[in-house]
Amino acid sequence: MSESRAHKSPPSLRLRVTAAAESIVRSGHPWLFAESIREQNRAGEPGELAVIYDRNDKFLAIGLYDPESPIRVRILHTGKPETLNREWWSARLAQAIARRKDLFDGQTTSYRWINGESDGWPGLVLDRYDTTLVLKLYTVAWLPRLNQTVELIEQQLKPERLVLRLSRNIQSVARAKFDQSDGVILRGKPLSEPVIFLETGLNFEADVLRGQKTGFFLDQRENRRRAETLAAGGNVLNAFSFSGGFSLYAARGGARSVTDLDISAHPLKSARKNFELNQSHPAIGACRHEQVQADAFEWLAQTANPKFDLVILDPPSLARRESERAGAIRAYGKLAASGIANLSPGGILVACSCSAHVTTEEFFGAVRTAANESGRKYKEMQTTAHAPDHPAAFPEAHYLKAIFLQC
Description:
Number of helices: 12
CATH class of the largest domain: Alpha Beta
Largest sheet: 7 strands, mixed
Oligomer: single chain
Radius of gyration: 23 Å
Helix content: 25-40%
Strand order of the largest sheet: 16-15-14-17-18-20-19
Strand content: 25-35%
Distance between the termini: 80 Å
Number of domains: 3
Structural class: alpha/beta
CATH architecture of the largest domain: 3-Layer(aba) Sandwich
CATH superfamily of the largest domain: Vaccinia Virus protein VP39
């Protein structure tokens, strides 16, 4: 065999899929599952471009192949064939950046630049924390393309620091096959302490190297802003408080007192630091800040003392897989009932869910049922979904929802 023949590139990875999958891909859904593939010409490598053809052997779509995931292909493009070269990727990043233009002013230096599939970057998110950017990957398909992706980010956004975060399910493969680890700094100086950023004029810290998500729950910004307008003169309970985001907004909104309730000492410590960072604000300095370290479900059920004027329930996902959906719906109802029991007459309940497997209708229904069964008259003030920097372009992306009730 000649040397040129020995080093010849393998043929393009070609897939054919079931009729049902064809329809789903044509509709714009960004995931192709392994069981939908009925034929492929060879084994594929992580991050390889897989070309999908329809039953008439015409181009259908192209996407990133991931042999490690049930989501075998993350769709990048459908319609007419295109060459996915550097210029194509650069334009796609520019589109995501342009969508955020004019959303924020200098009082907010933290938001999402890329929201995965909904911005055309399936399995990848990019968050800003002041001059530090955090790139989080949810599929190994991006790892072979990491250097190219980093170069594009540096070219267009020019961060002082870029941190790599990896979802738990890909960390072992990333380490073994790509020599990449969660929390490494890809560009910029080392970090010895959390990054400080602004959100609507408030200072917060983010543990971008080891914290949950990319270091902070940026997706709840708009609901925190709404809670601020409801807190004046009241006693506020922030259950599942994490690092005190809702609490700090409520304090600035004129709350008499705020109580953080969380099971873990670490986020409570971070909440104290966030309050310290904002003590120069008169309303925050005047607000009594208390903390309770306990299981929120148990504490709320046992306390049942209607002394709070605003109760915020923002638990972590209660259904991480479809099999947990029914139990999560019951848990949301029970949690809402306990929250109402701790609410003073005429107080406001803010109930949130980040469980993608629980639909908006199921979640709101559980909370409304709890309100009906409480025996109180209640008024539904509003329901909310995703913030503008967290667009949701397909059904599974619609995970965040919140409902505001006056009871």
